[in-house]
Design goal:
The complex is a heterodimer.
Chain A: E1 6-7, E2 36-37, H1 42-45, H2 52-56, E3 75-84, E4 94-99, E5 124-128, E6 134-140, E7 145-146, E8 154-155, E9 158-163, E10 172-177, H3 195-198, E11 204-205, E12 216-219, E13 222-224, E14 227-228
Parallel strand pairs in A: 3-12, 3-13
Antiparallel strand pairs in A: 1-14, 3-6, 4-5, 4-9, 7-8, 9-10, 11-12
Chain B: H1 15-18, E1 61-69, E2 79-84, E3 104-108, E4 114-120, E5 136-143, E6 150-156, E7 180-183, E8 188-190, E9 193-194, E10 204-205
The chains are: A mainly beta, B mainly beta.
């Protein structure tokens, strides 16, 4: 049998547990039985890896140009690379983002907080990484918002990221935070991540890619599960 | 080692960012199946506004319907279910080729926790040691309160190969039924996902 490409396991020193009572929504939704370990077959080592336009429609990389006018808020560029654990770029994979507006309100019927909506901002984007694994969005900085998990619970400013990677096994959904945000240390969702890995969710302000008279720049690199070197013999 | 980006929940507001129109219809993609247009104000659906552009595909059409429930048995109205499967010939086609089948789909759950996928029954693909696996669909579940993607598999209860599947054999016998989609009429299957509690769906560590 030819050597199968397998992926490293999820790293327990990086990944949150499924049950985290301080984040109350986990208590009735986290599975109570242990996960069943299975080998990676062709099902797990393959995944959608192209045809994104056909599936989902064209890329939307500038979130400030989706409506008649420009959205209010601090214009920012968010860019970075998608890599595997061996620093290899993950090329041609889809990166999807969604976020609240500058006032901390989502354009979503379930978000009933009374901060204002912005008719010129939706907050959803999608791009495909280039050959070096790079992606880039133009957007506005999202606001913090209260979420009722506990008294005075406010989510830190964040942008949601969804990544496929090369296989079903490498799928990742995460959130990007902003440097220096005092709410991160108080946030039960960010704090489900082991302390040593928490900084990986915080983007880096970058003056070099900040664009003169246009936008501040934040860099957020994302590392997906890498390829396991050993061929499998069974 | 020690470099992976940590996972975080999709939260409750992913619908305008992830679930595209027709995402749950792998056989044609016309229409809104998989999306929750009721949650997005007019003018703010910016992803794939033209609807799905998949093409009809060969194979036995199947419809897979189910409900996601929590540990209290309550429907989960803000979950997202993703599927990945082979085509009818047992081939995984990452980009589908020109006009071909892409075995990837995505559906938000409705107010009733329900989801429906329209697809074709997958063929058999090789498994450990080159033995064939029974037809199956890989499933990922996301939602508010789920800090990581939950991975599981759907098998077809009425397929003669299911009982001999090498991966299903790794699941404790008394829990295997949680991975079986039950036939409910011609080409229609039922597959509920129970996140927690008695009858909890088996989730995998891949």
């Amino acid at each position: 049998m030819p050597a199968a490409t397998e992926f490293n396991p999820e790293d327990p020193t990086a990944q949150p547990p499924l049950l985290a009572p301080d984040y109350r929504s986990t208590t009735k939704r986290a599975p109570s039985r242990p996960l069943v370990r299975i080998p990676q077959t062709l099902t797990e080592t393959t995944g959608p890896a192209g045809g994104w336009d056909r599936l989902m429609g064209p890329a939307v990389q500038d979130l400030t140009r989706q409506h008649r006018g420009e959205p209010l808020g601090q214009r920012i560029v968010v860019s970075g690379r998608v890599l595997d654990e061996d620093d290899r770029p993950v090329a041609g994979t889809v990166v999807e983002v969604w976020q609240a507006n500058a006032a901390g309100r989502y354009i979503h019927a379930a978000d009933q907080w009374n901060a204002p909506l912005d008719p010129n901002f939706t907050g959803a984007g999608r791009v495909v990484t280039d050959a070096q694994g790079r992606y880039r969005f133009v957007t506005i900085r999202p606001g913090a918002y209260p979420w009722g998990n506990h008294r005075n619970a406010w989510r830190p400013e964040h942008i949601h990221f969804s990544l496929m990677g090369p296989a079903f096994a490498t799928r990742l959904v995460t959130q990007m935070y902003f440097p220096g945000d005092p709410l991160i240390a108080l946030d039960p969702i960010a704090n489900t991540v082991p302390a040593a890995a928490r900084d990986r969710l915080v983007s880096r302000f970058d003056i070099d890619t900040t664009e003169e008279f246009f936008a501040l720049s934040y860099v957020f690199d994302i590392v997906l599960r890498g390829r396991r070197a050993t061929p499998r013999e069974e | 080692m020690g470099r992976q980006t940590p996972s975080q929940t999709v939260g409750p507001y992913f619908h305008y960012g992830l679930t595209w129109k027709g995402g749950a219809d792998l056989t044609g993609g016309a229409g809104d199946l998989g999306a929750r247009m009721d949650l997005i104000p007019p003018g703010h659906y910016v992803l794939n506004p033209g609807g799905g552009v998949r093409r009809p595909v060969r194979g036995e059409p199947v419809e897979i319907a189910g409900v996601v429930r929590d540990g209290d048995g309550q429907p989960v109205p803000d979950a997202m279910v993703e599927i990945w499967q082979a085509d009818a010939d047992g081939r995984y086609a990452p980009d589908g080729g020109p006009g071909g089948f892409i075995g990837f789909g995505r559906s938000a759950t409705g107010k009733d926790g329900g989801f429906i996928f329209r697809t074709v029954k997958p063929g058999r693909v090789p498994g450990p040691g080159g033995r064939l696996q029974a037809p199956h669909v890989a499933i990922g579940v996301f939602g508010r309160g789920l800090l990581r993607r939950l991975a599981t598999r759907l098998y077809f209860a009425d397929d003669p190969a299911t009982a001999g599947d090498p991966i299903l054999a790794l699941v404790p016998a008394d829990r295997r039924t949680t991975l079986l989609a039950r036939p409910e009429g011609p080409g229609r299957y039922r597959f509920d996902i129970l996140l927690q509690g008695p009858g909890e769906t088996v989730f995998f560590d891949l």
